[in-house]
Design goal:
It is a single chain. With about 100 residues, this protein is mostly helical. It has a two-stranded antiparallel sheet. It has helices at about 15-25, 45-55, 70-80, and strands spanning about 5-10, 15. The protein has 3 helices and 2 strands. The structure holds FE2/S2 (inorganic) cluster (FES). FE2/S2 (inorganic) cluster binds next to loops.
Length: about 100
């Protein structure tokens, strides 16, 4: 995903913002990325990706590169619909479920 792609849909945090946060603040543990606008403190979907960004050290290179923004959003929706996390009020809404053809 590109730097301007949203990583935390609950708090609308882009990858660029997270990468810059890591570069500028040099957090010691991945959980400190929550200090970047609350990233990861909503439904919890983005936490594995926050950890990737943390381990990149702010280089902006990670396996998150392998996902399109659409695929990322779809996987988050699956995660939430499976009951693994609940987005806070104001979070980016889930994409519509595919409807069967009439
Ligand atoms: S997408 Fe980041 S906490 Fe929900």
């Amino acid at each position: 995903m590109e730097l301007d792609a949203k990583i935390c849909y609950c708090f609308h945090i882009t990858r660029r913002k997270l990468v810059n946060f890591v570069r500028q603040t040099e957090p010691r543990v991945p959980s400190q990325l929550s200090q970047c606008g609350g990233a990861g403190t909503g439904c919890g979907w983005c936490i594995p990706f926050l950890k990737q960004i943390f381990h990149e050290g702010g280089t902006g290179e990670a396996s998150v590169n392998d996902l399109t923004p659409e695929e990322y959003a779809r996987r988050r929706a699956e995660y939430i619909r499976a009951g693994k996390g609940a987005p806070p009020p104001g979070a980016t809404p889930l994409p519509d479920v595919d409807k069967p053809a009439p």
